[in-house]
User: Fold this.
Amino acid sequence: MNDTLLKLTGLTKAYPGVIANKDVSFAIQRGEIHALLGENGAGKSTLVKTIYGLVKPDSGTLAFDGQDYAPADPRAARATGVAMVFQHFSLFDALTVAENITLGMENPPKLNALAAQVRAVSDEYGLPLDPDRTVGDLSAGERQRVEIIRCLLQDPKLLIMDEPTSVLTPQEVEILFETLRKLRSEGTAILYISHKLEEIRALCDAATILRLGEVVGECTPRETSARDMAEMMVGEVLQVPERAQKPQGDVVLDMTGLSAPAPHQFGTALRDITISVQAGEILGIGGVAGNGQDELVAALSGEMKVRQGMLSLRKEDIGLWPVNLRRARGLLAAPEERMGHAAAPDMSLTENALLTAAARKALERNGFLRWDRARSFANEVIAGFDVRTPGPENTARSLSGGNLQKFVIGREIMQDPDVLVVNQPTWGVDASAAAAIRQALLDLAAKGAAVICISQDLDELMEISDRFCALNEGRLSEPRSAQGLSVEEIGLMLGGAHDMEVAHAHG
Amino acid sequence: MDWAAIDPILLLASLMVAATPIVLAAIGELVVERAGVLNLGVEGMMITGAISGFIIATTTGSPWLGFVAAAFGGAILSLLFGFLTQYLLSNQVATGLALTLFGLGLSALMGQSYLGIRAPAFPDWHIPLLGDIPVIGPIVFQHDPMVYVGLLLVIGVWVFLKFSRAGLVLRAVGENHDAAHALGYHVRRVRMLAIMFGGACAGLGGAYLSLVRVPQWTEGMTVGAGWIALAIVVFASWRPGRLVLGAYLFGGVTVLQLNLQAAGIAIPVEYLSMSPYVATIIVLVIMSAGRAPGSLGRSFYASR
Assistant:
């Protein structure tokens, strides 16, 4: 018996200016979780869109179940037995769960019957979901469940998952993996796209690695180290960030009983946060999303004012200072959301550089902009942080996520801050760019700045921080020295299962 | 003033007639907007429908053929909008405004030799049994057929949007066109069909003015009915039931102020003339709680 489910032979797809896929060949077996690995822009998305019928290849063939397979559109793909869960959810906010699911089906039953089916499938796979709720009210994890159940109701032979864990909390990731393992045991093949190597090692049976549109290697993830896989992805030896031993300096930033009410209905109140940050150290703050990270960044950056005596910079009370005054005095921040918060998507990189660096880099004089200086500053950031773009006149939107993140972080670092606050500095960024950003943060601290790094990536925090503390329902734990801290201890600091549920309710 | 000049039964009966052009145009635009397209050219499509219907009705002598021609006229003009916005990705607001100006000019040109002619008669229906009920009969069941066509269209659109799969696909396209495309639905095709339906309905609404309500052709005779239809769609939160309510309210105040003018009330005519617009907008603003379709007014560009 032939166990190959999907076979790709010599797939090539070129767009004007780039070759997205070049002579890609590999095969997926029945009942196998097959990882497709690659950096941003390696051609993973184009490849799966080809399999799902959204993109037509220039040349090359596919065979599904031994038959020639050339889907004209996603419906044809679904009819053959291919289902896909998208990276950016393809859901309709104003419609109910049941309506969303029926839209993704070829021969949907009546809505009432479908609701019963949804309940049955969600019980069977441990994915609780109410079919009558409006999708706009669901958390990221619940939204993904809608997509997965939509796929499962079709009894797919091949399930494609495009970066499914990038929006999930660790607990939700575990639930997802259980579901996927159950599907595998039932004989469903899964094509799993990710660049999170530890996940792939935990979950996948085989891996194909893409670089610049070409297959550069295959491996068995369980038997290959994450480092080896990363080097195959990047094509070069990966730099592990180095920390320099450095003397601890004076206290620059003081939080004393920092409290603030929740800024909006879904926000979190900050409760009695007390900590001092010294020059030259990196303070890592971990925690599940929705436990006050955004609010803490807002309070530090000045987007949210706090009462007198709660926040001081070099002994000066700054709780009521506006954002630009804090910037001018050396307290800079890079928020989590790149598009629309850290950068204005439709403005050029030069303009975006001006927006935060005008005061510190003297990019304006008497209210008039100094375009030449702004442009050369933007160019410095682009060169200094290896931002891949044709030039500073391009819009922020035109950059890939990782490149824009490098630009946003670089823009703050190049202003020589005394205190830098970053939130999720490497979210959605590929391995080599993430390593570069972490190294830049370490270098900044080595030069004597204080860095507060808020992240949900615990490995990242262990790698760069000197002290670690956890943010939990708006409270900050006692800081611990990051060296020698075990995963169990961190788990306890993060607050256990009860608080995870709270985080879900906020998500 | 003379209150006896106002007959409440006649007033309520003419309310339905006054509201019908708005109902027709607005229900078409509602479908267009639920598909995620903002067509501000309703006024232009209405008046093009008005003259197309008038020309065919006076030439053939059949008001029914006139209405068919009006629907075609409106739909053809809307195709121009659809081609520009869906295929050439022009800005929907600017294109819609241009469509209104174009329609006003085009209709004036087409109608030059039709000024001062009367439209062929379009007799009222006296619906058996129902029409004989006292008070309610003359108010509701003794109108021309287009009044009922308009109401049936509203019910049909409501059923279509709420219960049919095609209606669900249309709402999905309007809510998130990228997701609909990723699932394999034809965003442009759905939108073009919706735009044409909207154009046809606007054309019917315009022809109702030139063939029934006035009934003759004058330049610019829609006098803002298309705009009020657009406003009603928004303030009715994109829901057919509220849309009828809004249109009847508008029709009601229109008829009432005409009656008041005739009765010689001591309020300047200008205030009376603006009262339907003011009253409708105030009531619908108070009622409105809806959320616009997620992709409303955004151009769809499929990357392949």
About this structure: Chain A touches chain B at residues 53-56, 73-75, 78, 86, 89-95, 99, 102-104, 108 (CB under 8 Å). Chain A has two domains: 4-234, 251-339+418-506. Chain A is about 35% helix and 25% strand. The domain at 251-339+418-506 of chain A is CATH 3.40.50.300 (Rossmann fold).
